Amino acid sequence: MHLQGLSLSHFRNYASLSLACDLQTNVFIGSNGQGKTNLLEAVYYLCVARSCREAQDRDLVRMGADHFLIQGQGRSAEGREVEVQIRYARPTGKKVFVNESPRRNLSDLYGILAAVVISPDDRRLVQGSPGSRRRFLDIAISQSNAAYLSALQEYRRVVRQRNEALRAYQERPGKTEGLEVWNAPLVALGSRIMRKRVEVVEDLKEEASRIHAAVSDDNECLEIDYAPSFEYEALADVEQAFEEALDRAAPRERVRCMTEVGPHRDDLSIRMNGVSLQAFGSQGQHKTAATALKLAEARFLWHRLQAPPLLLLDDIFAEIDAARTGRLMEMVPAYGQTFITTAKESDIGDYRRGITRFRVHGGAVTPYD
Ligand SMILES: Nc1ncnc2c1ncn2[C@@H]1O[C@H](COP(=O)(O)OP(=O)(O)OP(=O)(O)O)[C@@H](O)[C@H]1O
Ligand SMILES: [Mg+2]
Q1: Which residues contact 222 (CB under 8 A, 6 or more apart)?
Q2: Among protein residues, the one whose CA lies closest to atom 2 of ligand 1
């Protein structure tokens, strides 16, 4: 899969942009605050219809404008010529078109083009809340599995409704019927989501450990595991364990009016050399681990979609030492089309074969040479 052309209108600091992309490696060089990350954000948005910086859609609209438009042509995961257009306007929201035909659900967009972004924000994967790690897993799986995204959206709706029922119960204790109807869909959907996540983590953990070992020159051993909010013996018994966990949580849930167990409370445990990376790792180690996880995500998507996703590397030279960066950059050509940003041209070093360089300045992109 690849992106051949990208056009932007009123996106972040780009009034208008039309860019012909290198099908292999694109390097964007520019000073701070010129629009390098904004450009990667636009490419990511075209694939996933959301910001990789967790920004609100309205903040992506160029200040003073009332809408933005991102358009891209290229080749889809299935090898077809494809044109994707995403328009957002404040009153009407987001509209997605694939080959000019409107798509109602985001799940219809996922998997046509896929992207993995590696950026300074990845430190959230290690240092942030469990929600950041769940989001990572959910986006990785959704990009390759539309049914997962639908199940996840439905599950979230069930959790919201069940929480409302818990609040109603607190106001009128004794009336449990309104509450109990939500247990069966919660358990059914939640168990499906957990099974899928566990299966994917099994894939990701091997790959991430391998990549981490290579980048750290075999000095560090990364271990990743799915950390569920309740214990179960075997994955086949997860429904029963979920029901039992709900029974145990019932008194707490009725006080707090929150659904306290289920995949919306699960986490990913990340350890390095046998100890918690969050508690004991250095910044560079956090960054190396997060990068290994993201490259593992790219490998996973490649395997599932049978085509390498777009790899977006934002400022990866910050925080990682030169030796690690060198080993990382040696791996990058093995992936598919890549978009790299840097503030310092010298960071690109010897990595100059078969690349197209662009200069980014004040929301304009020009050839570098
Ligand atoms: N909605 C918006 N409208 C107009 N300008 C915006 C909008 N959002 C962000 N910007 C501008 O975009 C610029 C930041 O762009 P970006 O994050 O892409 O910088 P960068 O080139 O990646 O810089 P750095 O090297 O510091 O990471 C800032 O000058 C900011 O004011
Ligand atoms: Mg940036």
Answers
A1: 208, 209, 212, 213, 270, 271, 272, 277, 289, 292
A2: 12
Q: Which residues contact 255 (CB under 8 A, 6 or more apart)?
A: 170
**Which CATH number fits the domain that encloses residue 357?**
3.40.50.300
Task: Establish if 13 belongs to a structural domain.
Answer: yes
pLDDT tens digits for range 81-116: 999 999 999 889 999 999 999 998 888 898 899 999
Q: Which 3 state secondary structure label does DSSP give 243?
A: helix
Q: Compute, in angstroms, the gap from residue 5 CA to the centroid of ligand 1.
A: 21
| C-alpha neighbours within 13 Å on the C-beta side of residue 9 | 11
Mean pLDDT computed over 104-131: 92
Whole-angstrom distance, CA of residue 154 vs CA of residue 51: 22
Closest atom of ligand 1 relative to the 62 alpha carbon: 3
Report which DSSP code applies to 315: S
Which ligand has the minimum distance to the alpha carbon of residue 32? 1
Residue 296 in any domain: the answer is no
* Phi–psi pair at 226, nearest 5 degrees: -75, 130
Residues with CB under 6 A from ligand 1: 12-13, 30, 32-38, 59, 61-63, 315, 343, 360
Our count of domains for the chain comes to 1
5: left (phi over 0), alpha (psi -120 to 50) or beta: beta
Q: How far is the CA of 63 from the centre of ligand 1 (A)?
A: 11
The pLDDT of residue 349 is 67
Q: Which domain holds residue 338?
A: 1-114+309-369
Give a yes or no: residue 256 inside a domain: no
299 within a domain of the structure (yes/no):
no
Please, which residues have CB within 8 angstroms of residue 51's CB and are 6 or more apart in sequence? 41, 44, 45, 57, 60
Q: How far is the CA of 39 from the centre of ligand 1 (A)?
A: 9
